[in-house]
Amino acid sequence: MNDQPIQTRAAGRAAGLPPFRITRIEAAPLFGESPKGGWSAEIRPEDSIHALIAVHTDQGLIGYGSVFTDGRLVQAGLKVLEPLFLGADALSPDFVSEKLHQNTFWMGRGGTLTHTISGIDIAMWDILGQATGLSVGRLLGGRYRERVQPYCSLLMEEPAAMKDVVAGYRDKGFSAFKIGWGPFGRALDVKLDEAIVRAAREAAGEKSRLFVDAGASDALWPHGLKWAKRTAEMLADYEVGWFEEPVRPDAIDDYRELRRSSPVPIAGCEVLTRRQSFIPWLTTGALDIVQPDVTKVGGISEQRRIAWMAYDLGIKYVGHGWNTALGLAADLQMAAAFPDADLVEFIGGSPYVDGILAKPFALDAEGWLTIPDLPGLGVTIDRDKLGRYTPDPQALFG
């Protein structure tokens, strides 16, 4: 994401790279066209739920990251973290991120500071890639794949509307879909729940992959384990690939029991942060699929630890990705670097994914995404496009 020629970076690499000292970090809240989240207290287009991060260095390279948090909180988090990151070497993302975590334990593990560190960490990996001329996927150990299947992530609608929405994205080339939240489970009508899933399956077609997200991390989720068990049986009739967030996010015992009885795989953990919190979920049989969010969990440095721990325990890793184009770029690089990471989440219809890059992501003829093999995250922000969604985009660039 820098105009410095690759051959210059390669020459620097051969001669030994100097430190790339962090001189400042900027955050740009995104708002104006924030997509619906399906939450009980629904977000508005003018609300900020995402922010971009720019890490500036004394060598002129700038790295970019994404945070799934209100931009005002990210800006406040940067003020707290500033004494810890100023002058640090951006070519050491693991070290710097762990330093930020370790020195803010007393403020609480998770929440604003961990989310903010996530964006900083992603941006430092972007800088390391630019400085070495390598994609983040290669820096993480190699590329298991050159492309990956995106699943179009959509909010649930009433059955007729659900069918139209899924059909529309199928026409755009998607061959995998996840439907979630909306009236599902919230209308307290099991017949409606099934009708929504049936409509989605009919629109997606028999050969497409379909996943269902109850969204039980929503405020005041009304159901418990028995509802989840009954619903899992229904979902199996429609060949649903996984049942996501089927019970409240802290109900680990319910997850364990549901996973043992469910005919469909059970997925979750998008709300957790830091690798330590995932250990009981991965070691006690609570999940078939773990879904950390790289823009919240602590960044790429944390996400890769979780992904490898899951792999070693026979649990599938699929990153949660209801975020921005930079979050998706990080997810793509992670997908390149892990053996079974065969899917990435692609939020359908968000301008923050489709409308901020110089070269937007595009599906190939089979509905898959090519994973960039360019330095860093392999994408470039278009500052004019970004200016539609944040008041001071220039702070990210210069």
UniProtKB/TrEMBL annotation:
It comes from the Bacteria. SUPFAM superfamilies: Enolase C-terminal domain-like, Enolase N-terminal domain-like. Residues 159-265 form the Mandelate racemase/muconate lactonizing enzyme C-terminal domain. It catalyses: D-glucarate = 5-dehydro-4-deoxy-D-glucarate + H2O. Pathway: Carbohydrate acid metabolism; D-glucarate degradation; 2,5-dioxopentanoate from D-glucarate: step 1/2. Its EC number is 4.2.1.40. It is an enzyme of class 4 (lyase). It holds the Pfam family MR_MLE_N. Signal peptide: none annotated. PANTHER family: D-GALACTONATE DEHYDRATASE-RELATED, GLUCARATE DEHYDRATASE. This is glucarate dehydratase. It comes from Bosea robiniae.
